[in-house]
Amino acid sequence: MKKQKMRGKFLPPKSDVAFKELMRNETVRRYFISDVLGIPPKEISETRLENTYLGRRSSRDKEGILDVKLLFNNDCRVNIELQIKNIPAWDKRSLFYLSRMYVEGMHAGEDYALLKKCIVICVLGFSWDAYPGYHKVYSLRDQEGRLYSDQFEIHVIELNKELTGDRLDDWVRLFRAEHREDLHMIHSENPGIVEAVKEVMTMNLGARLRALYEEHMRIKRDRIYLRNIAINEGKSIGKAMGMTEGLEQGRAQGLEQGHQQGLEQGLQQGLEQGLLQGLEQGLQQGRQQGLEQGKNIGDLNRRRQDILDLLEDLGEPPQDILSRIYAEEDTSVLRHWHKAAAKANSYEEFRGAMISYHQL
């Protein structure tokens, strides 16, 4: 659907843009995860959003881009997928995402104990099976129901089935909403639902107010991003200062012991300390270079994701456009493409903007 046709119309919570924006809200994420997994909110210490792009180990691997990916309590990864239209082999697609997410970041020689539990939550706008009940949970069990491992878990929520009085009913009502009046009919004391309704109402302001809202959200996300960078840099500086102070104290003690034990032992200790100092300096320089590279990569990925978010209304992005976006490493080019994506009414128009900019 073209962007000009969206203006003045209701942006439903189950649209890709609205759904992803909802999941950026910490309160909405926390209570949605709580209600789906049946975990009290107070036991959820953190739900941190992660990069939705699943990296490939080789050029022959299939690419994967998730709707929403988050790290829950630092020991479990959750992928939330919204699929309104029925597509072939959805079960295989969800398992592909689950398996790729499970081994992501695992390298040769590492301990299997480092692998984190992975959960996929599928919110479907079509009937998955003929059985009643809109919320189903799948896990690895034997023929008698005994659990083999809790590392894989799949939740399926079917929006078109009858409500059951479950704690998830209000979430289903929210994702079913097609008009503002549907939101007004939701009377819930769930803080996550209340916050989600407020977010959707804000998204459906007039064109001018919506633009102000989107700019506010962009600034808010940038502030959080910069704050996290500052925190990480502060930790690195504090650690480096502590290591330097410890090295100076160790050097002083070694000098005193060297005078006491003789020139030969002092020389040996001096050589050892010099080696340690060289190693520490090299390690510190490597950390600093890694931090800079990580910041650059994080900025590039954020800019790429912002472009893809704007293009979602145009449908599934063509492979050539997707490849060019992920291959581009010039932030000024990505910034120009971001502006072009906000104005584009079709992928052909956006492709033309990409080409014309490189010809300048």
Task: Walk me through the structure.
The structure is a single chain. The protein has 360 residues and is α/β, with parallel strands linked by helices. It has two domains: 3-204; 219-358, no CATH class. The chain has helices spanning 3-6, 16-22, 26-37, 90-103, 169-176, 180-184, 191-203, 207-261, 263-311, 319-327, 331-343, 347-358; strands spanning 47-49, 53-54, 64-65, 68-72, 76-83, 117-124, 135-141, 147-158. Helix 3 (26-37) packs across helix 7, helix 9 runs parallel beside helix 11 and helix 11 (331-343) packs antiparallel against helix 12 (347-358). The chain is globular.
Task: Write the topology of this structure.
Elements lengths: L2 H4 L9 H7 L3 H12 L9 E3 L3 E2 L9 E2 L2 E5 L3 E8 L6 H14 L13 E8 L10 E7 L5 E12 L10 H8 L3 H5 L6 H13 L3 H55 L1 H49 L7 H9 L3 H13 L3 H12 L2
Parallel strand pairs: 5-6, 6-8
Antiparallel strand pairs: 1-4, 2-3, 4-5, 7-8
Helix pairs in contact: 3-7, 8-9, 9-11, 11-12
